[in-house]
Amino acid sequence: MDTGATAASDRLIATVRQVAGSQPVRYVFNTSISPEHSGGNEALIKALGPQGGRGRAATTLLAAHENVLLRMAKAKVPVAAQPTDTFLDQKELYFNDEGIVAYHVDNAHTDSDSVVFLRRSDVIATGEIFSTTTYPVIDVANGGSIDGVVNGLNLILDLAIPATYEQGGTMIVPGHGRLCDEADVAEYRNMVTIIRDRIQDMVKRGMTLDQVKAARPTLDYDRRYGAGDGSWTTEKFIEAAFKSLSAKNGKLG
Questions:
Q1: Alpha helices per DSSP H over the chain
Q2: Is residue 209 situated within a structural domain?
Q3: Which end is more exposed in the chain, N or C (fewer Cβ atoms within 10 Å of the end residue's Cβ)?
Q4: Radius of gyration, CA atoms only, the chain
Q5: CA 122 to CA 92: how far, in whole Å?
């Protein structure tokens, strides 16, 4: 799946070696353009990719939505770290007795997000669309929107199947936080939808960004998901949601 941040490459390589032994890594998916999900591409493939033999070239298939490749090329990311296989809507493959499907989600965290479903294992990797630790990270500059996040969460819920009493069943790996199931995603989806609807109503009423921030539309969820400092604060989330909804409603904000 994702290769993580560049600084964590050595730890990732060591962990993969513990699981896979001497077997090469043949397939990697990047769920978004975010450096937290693709920063280790070059190091991982160089250290763990298959080696050519008998005159044949060998390579790790690095799959991602086409926008990941386009944005990496524009940013002059080294070719060795760029995707070698891209898709627009959906990517399917069968490997190691496992059916794997990657679904593109339009304009969620960015415009290049994917949800990856391992069908036999019944595991879904969500990338930055879902987290148990923060409000959704919405990169408006790279095509992100709060509506897209809600759509992505609904896709995850469509794919997941719970076990007893709506617990267990499909295991869901968030971009950040603990292992989850469908109920956890439903709770998060409801939270994002409620906040989205509140801010959308404020935008339609002509409120400015400062007025929306002062109204504190996230107040009842801040103790769990909010942050006053760090890389992704509550204020940044409100601002990103406001900007994406203002653009949808044809307002400048």
A1: 9-20, 35-38, 41-48, 66-74, 146-159, 182-204, 209-215, 222-225, 234-248
A2: no
A3: C
A4: 19
A5: 15
Cα dihedral across residues 229, 231, 233, 235: positive or negative: positive
Residue in the block written with tokens 């560049």: 6
- List the one residue out of 203, 204, 223 whose CA is nearest residue 213: 203
User: Which structural domain range is residue 59 located in?
Assistant: 1-65+77-87
Q: What residues are paired with 103 via a beta bridge? A: 90, 115
- With a pLDDT cut of 70, the percent of the chain lying above it is 95
What is the reported pLDDT for 58?
Answer: 57
Number of domains in the chain: 1
Token pair 């960004």 is at which residue? 209
Shortest CA distance to 166 belongs to which of 174, 157, 175?
A: 157
Q: Would you give the end-to-end CA distance of the chain in angstroms?
A: 37
Q: What is the mean pLDDT of the chain?
A: 92
| Residues in CB range of 148: below 8 A, 6 or more apart | 105, 106, 107, 108, 109, 113
Task: Give the residue from 153, 157, 143 showing the smallest Cα distance to 175.
Answer: 153
Q: How many angstroms from the chain centroid is the CA of residue 93?
A: 20
Beta carbons of 14 and 25 less than 8 angstroms apart = no
pTM for the structure as a whole = 0.91
For residue 139, which amino acid is it? D
> Is 249 contained in some domain?
no
